[in-house]
Write a sequence for this structure.
């Protein structure tokens, strides 16, 4: 586990992590000094004669010229209060440094995981569950810093304090030190024996149940219509309830285990007090009081330390699954969006597909094999073929979303590669069968990826008109600033497709790719969308259009049709 944690923490955070370790040590020393500051008060409470019999107290009394025992006691008490207040303020300042480190690391890990998943490409996204990826980015990263790193800091801090206190007790009273061992070592041993394997198992079970519950919730709301029509909510609810019950059951067991540290330390403290009373029989009254008082103060501070160590250890074991999830991603350096340039790849002549083949990693056969053709600038090309012939795969290759297994795609003679893919994608527009829409305004969806203040409203209006959206926009209460709901839930399928077209036109794309953009529409809406595309083709002779369609009637405006077999 130690190696896994060190592998997760980036090098840029390790130096600061050493500084955090120093702050933890300083806080430990401050807490120890706070306890030590109570000793004069303890001496005075238990035996007022200590003012003159104790060499240190007597020296203070004479140095500051006190003439009254009462004023000396009050002054000592006030000094202790001021010292502890200052100590607490310093502790708070040091803790803020630790806190900022923890949350800045969470931000780094969450951001890196978010970017890394995106940079892995379409194949990875398609083969993964989006709800699970979302949970890893948002929940698991936080679990790692709050449920793994923070408990480690607590264990380190409290363990150091325990060592200092124990050493001090041992120097002053070996009997009290032995009693401390008798009290706390058995408690820790019993606790670790009882919970070690159980907590590991509880954490793994809770993680799996939470992951499945998160998936059920997302899929239920995303597929509401199909689930309702097919009366499938009962099954989804049964899975939801099963995973909730598992989480509740595991949570209840974990909560019970979490109470054990307090119970065991309290029992140990009571046993230690009883032993101390037994051992102090025969000692002088004043000596017994001092011994008993020192042990009580030390034990009362050691008890929460041991309790904190055991609770932190439980949290660490319970949340260790987060280490395995995050360690799968290389995060030693800040992740950046690949090829974030805004430059465009020049397209003046042709797109050439040369001997193109593609095979998925988990497949034994090619989806596309030795395919070659050329698309000239300004051409309107249709692509058809039976289901499974590889039409969408071909599109994803042309869009730069997949990398060919063999062969090349060249744009004006320049091969499409990872280095120039972003430039090519800046030059093209894409309208899929299910246009991606964010839960925001119509304007934000047309100018997707643009900051609000940088949107060119004249270009937006031209794109809306060219996509035959102007009548629809004029009917909206807030025009282009009207929200359209999650995945465009508040608008029709035809309007979604037109928004996709308007988005491509606003972008000023040189090539428009339509991936069965009308197949999910009724015949009348399909015809109107096809008319809009045909109108675009007619009005802009330099615009290159590539269309996938099942029906030949949707390709009548095309110059050529390529059939995949």
């Amino acid at each position: 586990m130690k190696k896994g944690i060190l592998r997760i923490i980036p090098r840029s955070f390790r130096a600061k992590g050493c500084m955090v370790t120093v702050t933890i040590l300083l806080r430990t020393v401050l807490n120890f000094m706070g306890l030590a500051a109570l000793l004069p008060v303890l001496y005075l409470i238990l035996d007022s004669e200590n003012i003159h019999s104790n060499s240190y107290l007597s020296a203070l009394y004479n140095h500051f010229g006190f003439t009254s025992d009462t004023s000396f006691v009050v002054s000592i008490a006030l000094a202790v209060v001021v010292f502890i207040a200052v100590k607490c303020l310093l502790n708070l300042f040091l803790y803020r440094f630790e806190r900022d480190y923890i949350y800045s690391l969470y931000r780094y890990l969450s951001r890196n995981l978010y970017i890394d998943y995106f940079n892995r490409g379409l194949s990875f996204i398609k083969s993964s569950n989006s709800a699970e990826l979302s949970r890893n980015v948002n929940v698991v990263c936080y679990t790692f810093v709050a449920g793994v790193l923070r408990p480690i800091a607590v264990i380190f801090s409290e363990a150091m304090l325990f060592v200092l206190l124990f050493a001090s007790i041992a120097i002053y009273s070996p009997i009290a030190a032995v009693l401390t061992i008798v009290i706390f070592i058995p408690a820790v041993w019993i606790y670790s024996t009882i919970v070690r394997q159980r907590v590991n198992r509880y954490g793994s079970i809770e993680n799996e149940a939470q992951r499945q519950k998160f998936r059920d919730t997302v899929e239920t709301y995303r597929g509401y219509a199909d689930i309702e029509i097919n009366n499938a909510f009962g099954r989804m609810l049964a899975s939801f309830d099963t995973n909730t019950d598992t989480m509740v059951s595991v949570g209840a067991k974990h909560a019970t285990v979490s109470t054990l540290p307090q119970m065991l330390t309290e029992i140990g403290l009571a046993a230690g007090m009883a032993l101390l009373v037994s051992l102090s029989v025969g000692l002088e009254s004043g000596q017994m009081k001092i011994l008993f008082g020192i042990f009580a103060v030390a034990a009362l501070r050691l008890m929460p330390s041991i309790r904190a160590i055991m609770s932190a250890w439980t949290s660490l074991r319970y949340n260790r699954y987060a280490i395995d999830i995050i360690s799968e991603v290389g995060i030693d350096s800040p992740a950046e969006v690949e090829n974030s340039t805004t430059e465009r790849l020049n397209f003046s002549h042709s797109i050439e597909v040369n001997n193109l083949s593609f095979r998925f990693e988990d497949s034994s056969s090619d989806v596309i094999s030795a395919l070659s053709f050329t698309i000239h600038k300004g051409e309107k090309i249709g692509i058809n073929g039976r289901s499974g012939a590889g039409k969408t795969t071909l599109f994803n290759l042309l869009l730069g979303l997949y990398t060919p297994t063999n062969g090349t795609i060249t744009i004006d003679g320049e091969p499409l590669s990872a280095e120039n893919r972003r430039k090519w994608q800046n030059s093209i527009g894409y309208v899929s069968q299910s246009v991606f829409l964010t839960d925001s305004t119509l304007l934000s969806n047309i100018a997707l990826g643009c900051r609000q203040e940088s949107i060119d409203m004249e270009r937006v209006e031209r794109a809306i008109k060219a996509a035959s959206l102007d009548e629809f926009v004029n009917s909206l209460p807030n025009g282009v600033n009207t929200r359209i709901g999650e995945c465009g839930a508040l608008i029709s399928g035809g309007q979604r497709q037109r928004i996709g077209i308007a988005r491509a036109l606003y972008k000023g794309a040189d090539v428009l790719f339509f991936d069965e953009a009308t197949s999910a529409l009724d015949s009348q809406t399909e015809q109107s969308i096809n008319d809009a595309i045909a109108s675009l083709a007619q009005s802009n002779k330099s615009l290159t259009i590539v269309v996938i369609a099942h029906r030949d009637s949707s390709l009548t405006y095309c110059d050529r049709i390529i059939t995949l077999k």
